[in-house]
Design brief:
Length: 198
């Protein structure tokens, strides 16, 4: 059975949503990052980068949330998008992996957790996170999903971060991003979201 190394932050939540939406059987293995469990020698065998999420699937180790989403979608055929949209899917998945996610995470860190308040860092990461939200908002005008006409791992990957709009941007909702808000509300209403949160 697949083992899912998890804690409730955006990147593991993406994988949780995929697994729940796909009705995948798995064993949940909590990783308490506040206690530093991700830095143990045992866990670094699972993920040498010492972060959650990671999975073990019948001897196959996969770490990094977006790599896990790609792996699972290729294994199951679920939420992988259509072949003709493959380039678009990979492009948006990397946009989330290299842009939306890291800049959102750094915005949260420097605004909420940094022991020293560094105005340049706070402004830099907040403005970049806002820019990524604007890119997605413009792209989603007239669209139900980020890629093509169906729900895919790109929607799952983006949901994990957009779900954290308050700690990322410091605003309660997505009112400034109406197309993104419409998309998010649709994804967030999926029954699997509640199961993933739990």
């Amino acid at each position: 059975m697949l083992k899912f190394y998890f804690h409730q932050t955006p990147n593991p939540m993406k994988v949780a949503l995929y697994l729940e939406d796909a009705n995948f059987s798995y064993e949940l293995v909590p990783v308490d990052t506040k206690k530093g469990e991700q830095h143990t020698a045992e866990f670094r065998v699972i993920n040498p980068n010492a972060k959650a999420p990671a999975i073990e699937d019948d001897g196959v180790r996969v770490f990094d949330s977006n790599a896990i989403l790609l792996y699972l979608s290729e294994k199951t055929g679920l939420f992988a998008g259509k072949a003709e949209n493959r380039g678009e899917l990979l492009s948006w998945l990397m946009f989330i992996a290299s842009g939306l996610g890291p800049f959102s995470g750094q915005s949260v860190h420097f605004r909420h957790f940094s022991p020293e308040k560094i105005p340049y860092a706070i402004n830099r990461y907040l403005s970049e996170a806002q820019r990524h939200y604007k890119v997605l908002d413009a792209h989603l005008e007239g669209r139900k999903f980020i890629v093509g006409e169906e729900y895919s791992i790109v929607d799952i990957a983006a949901w994990g971060w957009i779900d954290k709009v308050f700690p990322v941007l410091g605003q309660d909702d997505l009112a400034l991003y109406p197309h993104l808000k419409c998309w998010f509300d649709s994804i967030n209403a999926r029954p699997a979201v509640l199961r993933a949160r739990n």
